[in-house]
Amino acid sequence: xxxxxxxxxxxxxxxxxxxxxxxxxxxxxxxxxxxxxxxxxxxxxxxxxxxxxxxxxxxxxxxxxxxxxxxxxxxxxxxxxxxxxxxxxxxxxxxxxxxxxxxxxxxxxxxxxxxxxxxxxxxxxxxxxxxxxxxxxxxxxxxxxxxxxxxxxxxxxxxxxxxxxxxxxxxxxxxxxxxxxxxxxxxxxxxxxxxxxxxxxxxxxxxxxxxxxxxxxxxxxxxxxxxxxxxxxxxxxxxxxxxxxxxxxxxxxxxxxxxxxxxxxxxxxxxxxxxxxxxxxxxxxxxxxxxxxxxxxxxxxxxxxxxxxxxxxxxxxxxxxxxxxxxxxxxxxxxxxxxxxxxxxxxxxxxxxxxxxxxx
Length: 360
Description:
- The mean pLDDT is about 85.
- The strands form 2 sheets. A 7-stranded parallel beta sheet has the order 1-12-11-10-2-3-6.
- It folds into 2 domains: about 5-35 and about 120-355, no CATH class; about 40-115.
- The chain contains 14 helices and 12 strands.
- The two termini are about 35 Å apart.
- The chain is an alpha/beta fold.
């Protein structure tokens, strides 16, 4: 059978057959806006500036610039050392310490290479992005947006209406954060917890650069409350050794463990699981934009195959037969095979990422 690549508009037309449509964003969403910043390669060059000689050599030895792959290798090496050389406790501690350091290097690199201010992105690009997002959380959409990205681009696009009220398409978005009722003038807003998050339709599955764990609650620092750009706030926190809620583990199992130890992340994960598991008479469509379908995100992706999503729409960038797209298609086939025989088969279509014009 000949492979058919839909336009985004055609995919949306097909999705009208279903009662709900949701969106899952991968790193391609950010790369489409700033390809020189958000690829793994450029983050690696930034992190390399402060990276130890040993860590840089490990990247070279493995032949990758993927932080998660090296973190996973260090964690596995520590486990192997404890089996072959139980007395080499110092080596094991060093490997695990380097894995933790690499997570911090990644956060530092993201903050260092991130656009400094929201206005580094033009209004026209925000308008295009909000038009894309409105298909899922617009006034008549009623869907949810889930993202695996930790940068600020989605947040900036959602909040851009505050800069030019009334001039951009309206979005009915809610990330679950509210003013601190005990300190209304605080420079942050706080997540209200599961009990107060019923209207939440924006979910950061792996955390984000602007979300900080304050111990007893999760805080989101905002430009509106402080007058400081979010990246400046994040960098100030990093300099104080305060780190964002951020999942940088190297494999799917470790990511899920981190998620389960955070009330906020676990709530978002359960929300996505609920979307995947809920069967409705009219069915549910899920759009995935900019994700590679790599196995290190299996904790999220497997929910799609194991659940009751009716129709999956997956973006491909460029020639559908190129290497990265072949890997995506193989990953999607793996997801399809997870669908229980007792449930209707998962329908899948691929659409051209460029046709979505996410950033114009």
